[in-house]
Design brief:
The complex is a heterotrimer of chains A (252), B (237) and C (451). In chain A, 11% of the residues lie in helices and 44% in strands. Chain A has 252 residues and is mostly beta strands. Chain A has a domain of 154 residues: outer membrane lipoprotein receptor (LolB), chain A. Chain A is globular, with a radius of gyration of 17 Å. Classes of the chains: A mainly beta (252), B alpha/beta (237), C alpha+beta (451).
Chain lengths: 252, 237, 451
């Protein structure tokens, strides 16, 4: 089994690529080892992977639901809106830290760097796309139980400035090294958003099977109180050519 | 009947820490038509006594009565009106207003009297100027007049309200002898023709020789009152 | 002879001193009137920009919590069509209201195919916008900000789909120097090769941009925009981010029919607070949950309120200082005059003049001198204002991009106000000095030597 350890970054209210985690070690492991394993459980494959994701958001007296088809390869991803009909055909192309938004009828695609935060559900995308091992310095600060399973509690501090959140609190299961909960903090130390993860899917590769994320729930801790749930369909391992993720090809 | 009467008037001034008694119980009567000189050395109280008679100062004790009215019971406005209607002043330094001509200076006391119509005011001013023989100088400013002419203007100003009493403080002190003589003649003439009472302080021997009554004051006290003595002597002879 | 002629004669006695006092009053009056006029002009400029060109209105009606919360939570804090209708009806029923307009404010990203830059956009209704541009106050004090730097005003470009106006700073960041009318027929390069030198030329060749934003429902949205004009914002802070477009365009971007606020424009700006209060009461009585602000509220117009607060305190400080200097000059002059003429005062008193009659002599002199000073000051003001205004002196006020002309604007009200301040004060100090002197004993006054 070959699993690229470099994660995929996603944005907005769309997707999250997850991979099943390997089992967690029982003795106190190194923090960066934990992060890499947890990332791997949400990571991509070198050849490619495809799945559908449904994003349901509730808040401000309204609920929305959108469905996407996601094709990923390593760091790149092509996300195509399937529903509702109003958004059908819209595409988000992920390339390193840049996202291209392509809309039928729009003359040019719009590029959005990861640092350009949009309001509303855009912050969820930052959370979904975060590469913890690469972007954060982790320290194990304790052990707790979350959702009935023993976890390591870590404090993550941003390594550089090109990261959305300065600090994250992260709970990683001891068994399987899967990230089960995260709190994203403001500069002042207040909780801005909370995310929980479930891993009900399995991805099958020639090298073997591993757990993949099946649900991610993001809660707005501020006054808005918006709750976004991303449900992931079963992943399908397949080969995607690199040209699929070239903006010039997507636009044409 | 006396026009002005002072009853045991006392006045003390403060000069720094020192109290200076200017009048030490002066009793004096002035009658209509008198031409009286007030004589005394410097600091004897002459000016203070004139101020009391003219109601421009108030005694510390005693009473000043004008036409039998105690001026202490009058308000400042009432005293001002009394002076304006009944008393005229002639000053040693003339005290003319330099920016006003002869006519306007003479007119000054009448300007504040609303009861005199403008036409009458005009006539009275011209008459007063004629009385002092300055009809040819009506529009002259004071700095264009001689000392004697200025004093005449002052006399005309004092006369224009037809007062019952004219007070003069050393009226000839700043005049040469020839002019002094003419001023004295003028004052005497007015006293005789208009029956205006004159009461004035002076050192001038010439003036003293022509007055009917001389009141001597020394150290704030009346030491002699010669006119009265003469009349008393004549009455008793 | 009357007392006024006497006063005129007496003024000639100390010509040099009185001339100096006259000069002090003249300069003080002219200075205060010019400064007051300058501030009045600045106030009109700031108010015109705040109310009209920045589309704040004299009164603004938001959904409850909308002022603070509409950008972050637009779905919750915007006015839906029913609410808009009720607000417009309530405004139309008030005779103090000239007109009302609906506005949307929102944020997003503007892109040129290679680069995206954050924007803050205002969506305006074309017809009210046209009225604003033609408003006499706008034409008089802010014509240079009302006219676009390039291209046509938005109300005149209704046939262009997706018409937007872009602030010059933002246009520079997007490398869009040209407007729609200048590039008609030029094909749009769909995907410039961003890494190459030619990309800049390709981007600059057309007037097309993309606007992207998160809709009220939280989804990503984008539309095409066609730049029809480039404009200067009245504030330097907003030069790099401001977009002006039609309300319909912005509603299309955010996929909504709601608006952020309704701007209400009055005949008389002085009625803003009263109208705001009445409107709030009327709307809330009808069950509508709104927040209503006059433009004088610092929450909606922090720059205007802050600037006017500063200028107001400056006016009070400088005004007090200048007035004090002038009045002290009068006091000094009057004191010398009164004390020099002490014996003369005694003479008047001896002649039977009452205290207030004698004091009134000096008062008349002061009044005449002050009036002469005011007249000379008024003339000086006109001369200086004419000269300055003709010289077209330009300066850059803080917070304003570019420069504006220094205009001195002596207003009748300012003339009158300053005159009503100086004349009574001069009279008062004169009366005080003279009255005090005439209270002295007449005998002492007559024997006083000249000061």
């Amino acid at each position: 089994m070959t699993t690229r350890t470099t994660p995929i970054r996603l944005t907005l209210s769309t997707l999250l690529l997850l991979a099943a985690a390997s089992g967690a070690a029982q003795e106190r492991p190194a923090a960066d080892r934990l992060l890499k394993d947890a990332d791997r459980a949400r990571g991509g494959l070198a050849t490619g992977i495809t799945w559908t994701a449904t994003v349901n958001a509730t808040g401000d007296d309204a609920s929305t639901s959108r469905t996407f088809l996601v094709k990923a390869r390593g760091d790149d991803a092509l996300v195509e809106a399937l529903a509702p009909p109003r958004n059908k055909g819209e595409i988000l192309l992920f390339n390193d830290r840049t996202i291209w938004f392509v809309k039928p009828g729009l003359r040019r695609p719009v590029s959005i760097s990861a640092r350009q935060r949009l309001h509303g559900d855009a912050a969820n995308g930052d959370i979904a796309s975060t590469n913890y091992a690469r972007d954060y310095e982790g320290t194990i600060v304790g052990e707790e139980t979350v959702a009935g399973q023993p976890v390591w509690k870590l404090e993550l501090k941003a390594r550089g400035r090109n990261v959305t959140y300065d600090r994250i609190r992260y709970w990683i299961s001891k068994k399987g090294h899967l990230g089960v909960k995260a709190e994203f903090l403001t500069v002042g130390g207040d909780v801005f958003k909370t995310a929980t993860f479930e891993y009900g899917n399995r991805a099958r590769t020639p090298a073997g099977e591993f757990e993949f994320v099946s649900r991610m729930t993001i809660t707005d801790a501020t006054g808005a109180g918006t709750v976004t749930t991303i449900s992931f369909g079963p992943p399908r391992v397949e080969t995607h050519p690199p040209s699929m993720f070239n903006i010039n090809n997507v636009v044409r | 009947m006396s026009f002005v009467r002072l009853d045991n008037v006392q006045k003390t001034y403060r000069l720094g820490e020192t109290l200076v008694p200017a009048l030490r119980g002066v009793t004096l009567e002035l009658h209509r038509g008198e031409f009286t000189a007030l004589v005394g050395a410097s600091g004897s109280g002459k000016s203070t006594l004139l101020n009391m008679v003219g109601c421009i100062d108030e005694p510390d004790a005693g009473a000043v009565l004008v036409e039998n009215r105690d001026v202490a019971h009058l308000s400042d406005d009432e005293r001002s009106r009394l002076r304006n209607e009944k008393i005229g002043f002639i000053f040693q330094s003339f005290n003319l207003i330099p920016v006003l001509d002869v006519y306007e200076n003479v007119e000054l006391p009448l300007l504040i009297n609303d009861r005199i119509p403008r036409a009458e005011r005009h006539d009275r001013v011209l008459q007063a100027i004629r009385d002092v023989e300055l009809a040819d100088y009506v529009r002259h400013l004071p700095d264009k007049l001689s000392g004697g002419q200025r004093q005449r203007v002052a006399i005309a100003r004092a006369l224009v309200t037809s007062p019952l009493l004219i007070l003069a403080d050393e009226p000839t002190a700043n005049l040469d002898s020839a002019t002094t003589g003419r001023i004295i003649d003028l004052m005497l003439g007015l006293n005789e023709t208009r029956k205006v009472t004159f009461f004035f302080s002076t050192h001038d021997e010439k003036l003293m020789s022509r007055v009917a009554r001389i009141v001597q004051i020394s150290d704030g006290r009346i030491t002699a009152d010669e006119g009265t003595v003469r009349r008393t002597a004549e009455a008793g002879a | 002879m009357n007392a006024w002629r006497l006063a005129v004669r007496n003024l000639r006695r100390n010509r040099r001193r009185n001339a100096a006092t006259l000069l002090a009053i003249t300069l003080g009056y002219a200075g205060l009137v010019l400064f007051g006029g300058y501030i009045a002009r600045i106030e009109l400029f700031l108010r015109t920009n705040t109310v009209y060109l920045q589309h704040g209105g004299h009164v603004s009606v938001y959904a409850e919590g909308g002022l603070e919360g509409a950008l972050a939570r637009p779905a919750r804090h915007s006015l839906d069509p029913a609410a808009q209708q009720r607000v417009l009806e309530a405004a139309a029923a008030d005779p103090r209201v000239a007109f009302a307009a609906r506005y949307m404010r929102g944020m997003g990203l503007a892109g040129n195919g290679c680069r995206t830059v954050p924007f803050v956009a205002t969506g305006v209704e074309p017809e009210p916008f046209g009225r604003i541009l033609r408003h006499p106050d706008v034409q008089y004090v802010s014509a240079e900000f009302a006219r676009p730097v390039r291209g046509r005003p938005l109300p005149d470009a209704s046939e262009v789909e997706g018409a937007v106006g872009v602030a010059t700073g933002l246009a520079r960041l997007l490398n869009k120097p040209r407007v729609h009318d200048e590039v008609r027929g030029v094909p749009v390069t769909l995907l410039p090769d961003c890494g190459t030198p030619e990309a800049g030329e390709q981007i600059a060749a057309d007037a097309n941009i993309q606007l992207a934003a998160v809709t009220f429902g939280g989804a990503l949205s984008a539309i095409d925009g066609e730049i029809v004009n480039l404009f200067q914002t009245p504030s330097a802070e907003t030069q790099d981010q401001t977009i002006l477009t039609t309300l319909g365009t912005l509603q299309r971007l955010y996929e909504t029919d709601a608006v952020t606020y309704v701007g209400v424009f009055l005949h008389d700006p002085g009625r803003a607070a009263a109208v705001a209060g009445d409107l709030a009461e009327r709307l809330r009585a009808g069950g509508l949950r709104v927040d209503v602000y006059p433009f004088t509220d610092s929450r909606v117009s922090p720059h205007y309120v802050g600037a006017m607060g500063f200028l107001g305190s400056l006016l009070v400080f400088v005004g007090t200082l200048v007035t004090a200097v002038v009045i002290l000059g009068v006091l000094n002059s009057v004191t010398l005059t009164v004390y020099e003429r002490t014996r003369e005062i005694g003479t008047f008193r001896a002649l039977g003049w009452r205290r207030r009659q004698v004091a009134a002599l000096f008062l008349r002199e002061a009044v005449l001198l002050s009036l002469a000073g005011l007249v000379c000051g008024a003339l000086l003001t006109l001369v200086v204002a004419t000269a300055v205004n003709s010289a077209n002196i330009r300066f850059q006020p803080p917070g304003i991009p570019g420069d504006i002309q220094l205009v001195l604007w002596p207003l009748p009200g300012v003339y009158a106000t300053v005159a009503l301040l100086l004349l009574p004060l001069a009279s008062l100090v004169t009366w005080g000095v003279a009255r005090r002197r005439v209270r002295g004993r007449t005998a002492d006054l007559l024997t006083a030597t000249a000061a």
